[in-house]
Specification:
Two copies of one chain form a homodimer.
Chain A: H1 2-5, H2 12-32, H3 35-40, H4 49-69, H5 85-103, E1 114-117, E2 121-124, H6 125-149
Antiparallel strand pairs in A: 1-2
Helix pairs in contact in A: 2-5, 2-6, 4-5, 4-6
GO molecular function, one term (chains A, B): metal ion binding
InterPro entries (chains A, B): DinB, DinB/YfiT-like
Protein name (chains A, B): Putative damage-inducible protein DinB
Chain lengths: 160, 160
């Protein structure tokens, strides 16, 4: 049925609320790590959770600007910018504000536009946006394993 | 701006395609585990990846039926149903077909309806649906850590 295929599933405001809910949970996961383990603990040669969180920060703030304007900053993956938990949480909170401010400036038609996001990733922008969120959920799930391996109870997944 | 708040972000068909893309990736993660480790390997007292995948199966098929009909089966968390990788992959593929078949029977207005999903979880159904997907991404991320800890290269996250 065509009706279901083109049905509205979720509004832009609802997507934002979902994402900010995820971001509140991810913040709690960052905060649950002891300082040292946040930057040093790893399993199977993977990145520290600090580096994963830094990737989320560097993708999300500039990403939302790209959604709104079509101007994509170059992603700065390689350098580690945040060296303490406080710096990381501060950057996290700044990004939360950036997302909240810029969101309403995204022209409605943009979600169905195609862009070369960050000059590298071609696709419809709803997919780009979902990638930001899915990437966060994916790596946060990995942070849960790190916390469990460290004997720390992670925050409840359903609590947003 | 109200325009952005109520903008269409993604159609029902696009949500389905995103989800089935995730499901293809999760299937590759299940398949990447050796038989024994799929059912026995664990970090920090967590569940095996087989049990996580079983949860996804039991949530998704009956979940999509609930979205379409408002009839929610009781979730059967506790019993382990699938005992081999083949059984698990077979159930996975059956669920993929179930989702594909039932999706187009979801009345368009349902995504914005409220239900008591599985008789337990109250909320708008777009949120319930996103919970199915997020829960899969979350646990699949944990499966990636298990694979890395086992010295196995997981499938690429962006390959759907």
């Amino acid at each position: 049925m065509v009706r279901t295929a083109t049905a509205q599933v979720i509004t832009a405001r609802q997507v934002l609320d979902q994402w900010q809910g995820h971001r509140r949970l991810t913040r709690r996961v960052i905060a649950a790590f002891p300082e040292k383990e946040l930057f040093e603990f790893s399993i199977g040669g993977m990145r520290s959770f600090a580096l994963m969180a830094e990737e989320m920060i560097k993708m999300s703030g500039p990403g939302v600007k790209g959604l709104a304007t079509g101007i994509w900053e170059k992603l700065e993956w390689r350098e580690q910018t945040y060296k303490t938990k406080d710096e990381l949480l501060k950057a996290w909170d700044d990004t939360t504000e950036t997302i909240e401010e810029i969101w309403n400036k995204i022209p409605p038609y943009r979600f169905q536009d195609n862009d070369l996001a960050f000059g590298e990733y071609e696709g419809p922008l709803y997919g780009t946006l979902l990638y930001f969120i899915d990437n966060e959920v994916h790596h946060r799930g990995q942070g849960y394993v790190y916390l469990r391996a460290l004997g720390i109870e992670p925050p409840a997944f359903w609590m947003r």
